Amino acid sequence: MNTFGRAFRVTTFGESHGPALGVVIDGCPPGILLDFPEIQADLDRRRPGTSKWVSARKEADRVEWLSGLLDGRTLGTPIAGIVRTEDADPAAYDDLKDAYRPSHADFAFDAKYGLRAWAGGGRASARETVSRVAAGAVARQVLATLGPVEVVAWVDRVGDLASANVDPARVTAAGVDGSPVRCPDLAASAAFEARIAAARKAGDTVGGVIRAVARGVPAGLGEPVFDKLDADLAKAMISLPAAKGFESGSGYAGARLTGTQHNDAYVPDETAGIALATNRSGGIQGGISVGAPIEISVAFKPVATVFHDQETVDSHGRPTVLRMRGRHDPCVLPRAVPLVEAMMCLVLLDHWLRWRGQVGRPPPIPRETT
Prior knowledge:
Blueprint: E1 3-4, E2 9-13, E3 20-26, H1 36-46, E4 63-67, E5 69-70, E6 73-74, E7 79-84, H2 106-113, H3 129-146, E8 150-158, H4 173-177, H5 186-201, E9 208-215, H6 229-238, E10 243-248, H7 259-262, E11 266-269, E12 273-276, E13 284-285, E14 288-289, E15 294-300, E16 309-313, E17 319-323, H8 333-359
Antiparallel strand pairs: 1-2, 2-3, 3-7, 4-7, 5-6, 8-9, 9-15, 10-15, 11-12, 13-14, 16-17
Helix pairs in contact: 1-3, 1-8, 3-8, 6-8
């Protein structure tokens, strides 16, 4: 429900316009010295009010850590933190108490619970993801103590425009953040900006695709049946607001190839011993990582809040017309980049700790001897 993970468990709480949102992290290894400015840097990449392409809501998004830490080091006990709300405006949603916004979770929440936190969408708001990014930032730092793992995501496509030209083996976080829309391909970035600007000017929104890569992940993470590494990554990504599609490795494009064209051949490697000649499987085979970079794509729909009159009904089934007000993103993608990275870090750390708990250390790969 509100908890994600098994060995590294994250629980989030709070509503969009409530007094605070928060996170509880259970299962974090002890003795990790956390870099709090780095955690804040990840939160700053997600927070609103930072550019003309995101919501104008002004939130500092600073975490107050309440437990699980001593002198900046993790204790191994639950780590709890809250982010206080500073710029709530529930009055902007007064006319939505009874009306169902098209493609929002309003009707769905009423159908499930019989009531809902109508201001800003409550738990269905993307505001909830501040808790995930805080937890993901902690997970990123724990991963760094286990191995040289690097997780980078970027905007690959906006609307119907062509995909960006980005090399997953060389893309950097600095290159991504150097673009206003978080696309390191400068030509594509300019086109994406223009497309978002056109949508905003028309009172509309636009969606697109985010790609991500995790480099330095060892072979052996994941489970062979229900908790496949790619299955848990899919669950993590589709749990994000507005996410509608997931691909691992070649994804749907692989369906157009033959087995001969798609297979990744194993080859000798001076550093790793064994490596892949290609990586169409996206670093995961049989649900388990194979030591190659893990590559995924996540499709996000256009933000449902558009600034046009829309026909809908109220909670009594009576027809009504809505014209949206408030502060909303014309495109979720720039702020969704740190969300994708956070969820990827959570999945990788959870599986790494489960792997370590089961086998103790990386198992040896059988080799033929002469």
